[in-house]
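call fold(seq) -> C-alpha cells
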Amino acid sequence: HVQLVESGGGSVQVGVSLRLSCVASGDTISRYCMGWFRQSPGKGREGIASLDHDGTTNYAESVKGRFTISRDNAKKTLYLQMDSLNLDDTARYYCAAFREGRRLCFKFDGVHYEGQGTQVNVS
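ret:
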C-alpha cells in the first residue's frame, strides 16, 4: 500500500513559478507510473502530467512547455515544476500512482493510489 501526500501549493501571482512535491510512504514509487491531476470549480478533473518508471513523460497540451514532472525514487518523491503560471492553472493538484504502465497511465486512467491534494491559486 502507498500513501501519497502533496505539498508546495499556495497563492501566487501570474507569471511566477511553483514546485509541488508528492511524498510517498509505504511501498516504493519506482515501480509505478506516476502522475498529476488537477481540478477546479466548474471544470472537470484534468490529467496534466505523467512519468513512467523509465523516465518517459507525457503532458496535457494545457501545460506542455510550462510544467515539468520528475521523480526522486530514493526520496520516494514526485515533483511538478510549474513555470509561467496563469489564471487557468488555479486548481487543486493531486498526485497519483497508476496500476499499469504507460498504456493506461498516459491516458490518466487506472489510478491505484491518490493523495489529498494541494491548492494552487494564481491571481
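The mean pLDDT is 95.
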